[in-house]
Amino acid sequence: GPPPLLALRLFCGAGDSENLLLGGARASNSRVSRRPKAMASAHPSQGLPSGMDPSMVDEYASQSKLLQEFVKIPSIGKAWVFTSKDENASRAMVSVSQSDLLANKKRSFLLNTHISKSSSKSVSFQWSPFPVEMSGVSAVVPSPSGKKLLLVRNAEDDDSPTKLEIWGPCQLENEIHVARSVHGSLYADGWFEGISWNQEETLIAYVAEEPPQPKPEFNDSGYKKEGSSQKDFRSWKGQGDIEDSWGETYSNKRIPALFVANISSGEVRALKGIPRSLSAGQVIWAPSSSYSLVFVAWSDDNGFQETPRKLGIKYCYNRPCALYAAADPFKEEADKPSTDSNKGDTAALVKLTADLSSAFFPRFSPDGKYLVFISAKSAVDSGAHNATNSMHKIDWPTDGKLEGSLSVSDVVPTVMSPQDGCFPGMYCSGLLRFPWLSDGRTMILSSAWGSKEVILSINVASGEVSRVSPQDSDYSWNVLALDNNNILAVSSSLVTLPQMYYGFEDSHTDKPCQWDWQEISSPFPKPSDKVSSLLADHKFSVIKIPVSNPSDKLPDGAKLPFEAIFVSGKDSASSPTIVVLHGGPHSVYPSSYSRSLAFLYAQGYNLLVVNYRGSLGFGEEALQSLPGNIGSQDVNDVLTALDFVKKRGLIDASRVAVVGGSHGGFLTTHLIGQ
Q1: What fold, for 538-673?
Q2: Nearest partner of 458 among 367, 372, 378, judged by Cα
Q3: 0.85 exceeded by the pTM?
């Protein structure tokens, strides 16, 4: 049977999903361990770590080998498609990563392919024979035409410069070394990520750490010194004013600021005039305009405290933010807008979304008529760290002059209580750099829909939302890139490895938004026979769980069924079960492939993955029903889901454990304690 569960440490910080707490009746031989190497105290007589006996050695070795087989399976990251004059041919570039468990690092690669399409709506991919490793590369950003490629290499220490490499078709065209006195590392991921080519492919705007602020210097008696370097310090070292950070993953980062690089001359200029109380990110180029740059900025003033300060932002959509416009610092001074605030080297900033508490992921329509963006105003206004998104657009002035109030209109409103099987609202964690079909009005994006990830098309003119990925599939789907009016996507399930697909819109049917999906020949090697067999021996299903005894005080959306995903092998009724709980609490465990969960069920456990009320993907009323009822409503939902599968004879109710990280770890202790 399965091995006994180990009691691992509880980790209540947001985002460390690899640190889990497992509790249950079968936790024999349990001990607390932060890392495997923490078992280094050898048994004096057997030479084994304490808590182990010789009969366990082979079992642990077998588990270790199997874990490494799961971990070395490559993961698909981003993709880019480059069109050509031949509408039946294009090129694509796919980023792939592979983890090295023993070295505790991840290696990244780029794969290139040629795409050939026929009139019969079939497609073939001719992959390059070998990938190219992106060692030391922080970001890969192709230009709009696909003729140039930016590679960012962030400095590894305080004395090294950041490097911006500009590659052409077959050579390195320029390498720009940016000293630490100009700026620090680029923000290559997360909220503040923003690297954007202008349409002429002569300038690159990006977000990087501001340069170090000057620090006070003192003599040996503690008096401030003038005109000396820090090398003159002895026992007194000034640190300067205290600086807040944005919390997890940003604790050692300086304030994000905007810069523009000229790829020919190598000159880098900072965008002046942004107050240090604003943290900039997600910069893009605007159509021809006096204000060439549009970006998002988060304010230190979060509205909760008398003294403004930054709060954690990594999983928090409830931090107020707005869209701003500013001029390109390379423009001549005479071309800049003349306003009272534009004096000296201070650029004029225009706040574009003054009446909204949240605005991010800006994208201009191809014709430049609309500036479309996502808003998490429901999260900001309610205080929930994440909530149902909405989509809005600004009618961009044709003359490029941003005078007076701009017209902001709704595209997709917040969905409060979805009808059965209908669109539950937007839950968007990112947009493609160019998310548009050729009509210039339809955006393609990924979103949560219950316990699944789906691909949506949104007409920004009419507000019509359609589901592009297969309607009858419980698999999760994510868009990777667009090839004119076709879609390159990846699909997977908890028991199926990620597989790429190519989607064509079917114009020969009466059904709206009907798409045909063709599986793409994969360049990845097949997993080992053992892993393949384990995956094939398991199945999953998404189960709707009716709410148990809903209160009359609850809104209608909070009385709707929530969902759980049940993963089982051939003998589920006689196997032990692990209840899996996500963190947040306002996140969701999708049906997509997870190697950590695959490793668990490969050991012989059933999995019951519960997306309790408060999860993303089920409408705003269900989500907002959890705050104020944490530790009771979510606990009852988990127990209701457990009773549901128990009454149907799917599990052995005497052998159940629970696993969760962050809020899931909090729920784990509640479930054990209650």
Answers
A1: Rossmann fold (3.40.50)
A2: 372
A3: yes
